Amino acid sequence: MGASVSWLSGMLFSKKEIRILILGLDNAGKTTLLYRLKIGEVVTTIPTIGFNVESVTYKNLNFNVWDLGGQTSIRPYWRCYYANTAAVIFVIDSTDIDRLGTASEELAAMLNEDELKDAALLVFANKQDQPGAKGAGEISEALRLGELRDRNWSIVACSAVDGSGVDEGMDWLVQTVQQESMQLASRILYGTRPMGTNKTKIPGSTIDVLACLSICIWDGSTAFESLFVVGQSKIMG
């Protein structure tokens, strides 16, 4: 059955785009990071008023990446974009020590939102190429990341300008998303959903189990056989 879990996991994530938000205070380097991921180069940016959105493929996973403006007047609108988000990339300007407290408050408020309770968190301690940049350990302490419970998180020191650390962080994110997709597939196949729930959400998607099964049917006879196994599991459970 392990092969069935892997197959269903691949079905869930091979074609759809996984929704990612890039958040952080203004001037943290969010847009520079977005286009580092998109084209692998530094681009000239201006402060984001609203959002930028791009499709990004990394390690065979397709991401729908939203870069939201970080100005004080824009942050209250972040919550409009939280639904169906698989992971948040929170970008910190590691040289902006005076605003670490503000960044910590914004991060804590964001993580308290119900729509992000299952989202993985990747913190990029950005601008490591600049003098005076604090390391990942100091940034982690300032953000009180060690106090987080029931959430997959990681912090990586990086520079969106020269690219250092970016792949390390994204590798963690891909691995985390893939692990969560395997766990989801296992819950679907073996009927191990939490008691009292009637839907299993795919991280970063509005697709539930029934929609997933419809996708399986369209894929052909092999998929239909797996659908039958899922049906048995749900009935026997």
TrEMBL record:
Signal peptide from the UniProt entry: none
Keyword Nucleotide-binding: yes
Listed GO MF terms: GTP binding; GTPase activity; metal ion binding
Binding site residues for GTP: 24-31, 70, 126-129
Residues the record lists as binding Mg(2+): 31, 48
Keywords noted in UniProt: GTP-binding, Magnesium, Metal-binding, Nucleotide-binding
InterPro entries to which the protein is assigned, alphabetical: P-loop_NTPase, Small_GTP-bd, Small_GTPase_ARF, Small_GTPase_ARF/SAR
Family indicated by similarity: Belongs to the small GTPase superfamily. Arf family.
NCBIfam families: small_GTP
Name of the protein described by the UniProt record: ADP-ribosylation factor-like protein 1
